[in-house]
Each structure stands twice: as C-alpha cells, then as structure tokens.
C-alpha cells in the first residue's frame, strides 16, 4: 500500500512539473487555477472530535443529528461528495461499495457508512438515488448507509472538523475536493484517513477494527487526487488532469522499460 501511495504522489508531482497542454485540447476554462490545488488536500488531524450537533437530512427528508450516529457504538466510514457529481465522486463511492462488500465485517453491526453531500442543491431525492446507484446491490450494505444532505453552514462545520476542503468552480458548477474516506470511532473521534480511490478491503477492515477500539492512527501519506476537471459533455479533462494522465503514461513506459531490461539481463546470464 505504501508503494501505491508513493507512486500516486510521484505521478502528481510529475504531472505538476510537466508543461501544460493547450487548454483548447484538454477542456474548457475554469475559475480554479492549478496553483491553488494544494490547498484542497485533506487537512488530516487524527484524534479530532467531530461536532455532535450538525443537523442533516436523510433520503426520506428526516432530520439526523450527527451525534445520533456517533452514539450507536459502531465505527463510521465518513465520505464527503456531491450526489449529482459526474466525475470522480462516483468512482470513490463505487470503489468503496465494492470494497465493503468483500470486507469480512457485518454492515450495520460492525460499522456504518455516512455519505454527506457538499452540494447545497442536493436534495433527499438525490440521496435516495445515490443509494440506488451504489449500494442497493447488497441489501445488507444498503441498510447500513446514511446518505445525507444539509444546509451549507452545517455541512461546512462537519467537513471543516474532518479536515475535508472543497471549493465550487463557478464557471463549471463542479466542486474541487480530495478523494478519500475518514474512519470515525464510536463517539465521533477521527481515527484515520484512507486516501485516494481503489480501496483495499484489508485496509478498510483493519482500519474499522482499530476505529472500533478507539485507536487513533497517524497522518496518512498525501495523495492529491481531486474530484475535479472532467467535462462530461466534451469528454475531456482540463490541463491539470491532462498533465496527470501524461505523467501516468510516462511512468508506465518507464516501468515497462525496467521490466524488459531486467528480463534481458536474466536471459543473458550464463
């Protein structure tokens, strides 16, 4: 896992170093500049207490106070996104659902999931649609998911306490925010962060077991993978994401070259 995190960080650093492709080739202009993306990484603070009095609404329109979820005696997987997102949010939620289906823990008994929308335009109907898209394949899992919407001030209080930054691009209507989940201990204490996408079921299992026992982990390696920059209408990425994709290709070619060179050395041995 550390190797994967290091590779992802290297990809982002290489992407930032590479010259930008022409904007016309990679997408439409946005109001957010790549120079400000560093401010959109998780501000990790394991051990922080999340506010208990944040009031949100579930898919049925019922009010849900965060304290009522913290007091159930089970750890929570807390994920922030926006439910009508057409970029990386779906990947985060889809990967999370797929990983949780293979975790040898009982949803609703050993853990629950709290998905909170950062978009004030999301409504309870959008929360219900989110469950249908990502969690209804497993009825056990669907019953342990709390998809919640809320007023901007309430959501911002919870996100700020969890160290989750986000920013709306007024030009595109998309939200820029980091990818990852927060594991929360019973009572509402941040236990640890799992960053990026493609969650390892073993990482989730061990993290949930630790969170259930009240353990507080260390700060995770930063992976600045933003849910931002893809234009679904044009099918294109903006300059920052384009550089990341170029970097991924460059490192893939480099890795392939190393494999070929190693095989050649082995073949040449007497």
TrEMBL record:
Record has Chaperone as a keyword: no
Keywords, ordered alphabetically: Signal
Pfam families: SCO1-SenC
Leader peptide range in chain numbering: 1-23
Domain of life: Bacteria
Family statement drawn from the similarity comment of this UniProt entry: Belongs to the SCO1/2 family.
Protein name: Protein SCO1/2
């Amino acid at each position: 896992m550390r190797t994967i995190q290091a590779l992802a960080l290297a990809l982002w650093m290489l992407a930032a170093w590479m010259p930008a492709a022409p904007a016309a080739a990679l997408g439409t202009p946005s109001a957010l500049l790549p120079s400000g993306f560093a401010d959109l990484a998780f501000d990790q603070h394991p051990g922080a207490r999340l506010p208990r009095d944040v009031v949100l609404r579930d898919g049925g329109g019922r009010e849900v106070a965060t304290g009522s979820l913290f007091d159930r005696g089970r750890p929570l997987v807390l994920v922030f996104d926006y439910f009508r997102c057409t970029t990386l949010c779906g990947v985060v939620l889809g990967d999370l659902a797929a990983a949780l289906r293979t975790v040898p823990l009982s949803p609703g008994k050993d853990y629950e999931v709290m998905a909170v929308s950062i978009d004030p335009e999301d409504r309870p109907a959008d929360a219900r649609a989110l469950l249908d898209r990502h969690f209804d394949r497993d009825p056990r899992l669907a019953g342990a998911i709390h998809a919640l919407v809320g007023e901007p001030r309430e959501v911002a209080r919870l996100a700020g306490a969890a160290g989750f930054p986000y920013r709306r691009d007024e030009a595109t209507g998309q939200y820029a925010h980091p990818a990852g989940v927060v594991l929360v201990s019973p009572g509402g204490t941040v236990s640890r962060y799992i960053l990026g996408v493609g969650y390892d079921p073993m990482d989730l299992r061990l993290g949930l077991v630790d969170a259930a026992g009240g353990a507080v982990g260390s700060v995770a390696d930063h992976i600045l993978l933003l849910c931002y920059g893809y234009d679904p209408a044009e099918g294109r990425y903006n300059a920052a994401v384009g550089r990341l994709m170029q970097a991924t290709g460059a490192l893939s070619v480099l890795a392939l070259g190393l494999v070929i060179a190693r095989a050649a050395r082995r073949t040449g041995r007497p």
